[in-house]
Design brief:
- By secondary structure, this protein is an alpha+beta fold.
- The chain has helices at 51-63, 113-119, 123-135, and strands spanning 8-18, 25-32, 37-39, 42-44, 65-80, 83-97, 107-111.
- Strands 1, 2, 3, 4, 5, 6 and 7 form a 7-stranded mixed β-sheet that branches.
């Protein structure tokens, strides 16, 4: 990675909804077959798109749900194929919509936080979940 290389910009959400049981919340996890991982919905910004707009669009594309952005979470920095990547995150409440599997995301799980945390593939995604739980009013 070279310091002068512009990072790939992306955005996503720790998506939550009230539990159907009426007790607590559930966290949305998406499965990406290309990487065989479980993560939070996220994706790259399109030309001229804001990070907020990208987060809303990616949640809709990957989960089928509209959402309301809440608390701004950390920006995560890492490299992909030697290129720097910066992903801005928000906590977001799921609104209306329905999931339809695609080639990019073939499964969506709604789990209570204690079950969602170990299912997340990457430690940085578990850290984001912890941050969302500590800073979001549910």
């Amino acid at each position: 990675m070279t310091s002068h290389e512009a990072p790939v910009l992306a955005a996503g959400c720790v998506l939550w909804r009230p539990s159907p049981s009426g007790r607590g919340i559930e966290i949305a996890l998406v499965h990406r077959p290309k990487y065989d991982d479980w993560s939070h919905p996220k994706g790259k910004l399109k030309r001229g798109e804001t990070a907020e707009g990208c987060a809303l669009r990616e949640v809709l594309e990957e989960t089928g749900r509209h959402c309301a952005l809440g608390t701004r979470l950390s920006t995560v920095h890492y490299t992909v194929a030697g290129r720097p990547k910066e992903v801005s995150y928000w906590s977001a409440r799921a609104l209306d919509g329905d999931f339809t599997p695609t080639r990019e995301v073939d499964a969506l799980l709604w789990l209570p936080p204690p079950r969602a945390r170990p299912r997340l593939t990457r430690p940085r995604d578990r850290d984001l979940l912890d941050e969302a739980l500590a800073t979001t009013r549910f």
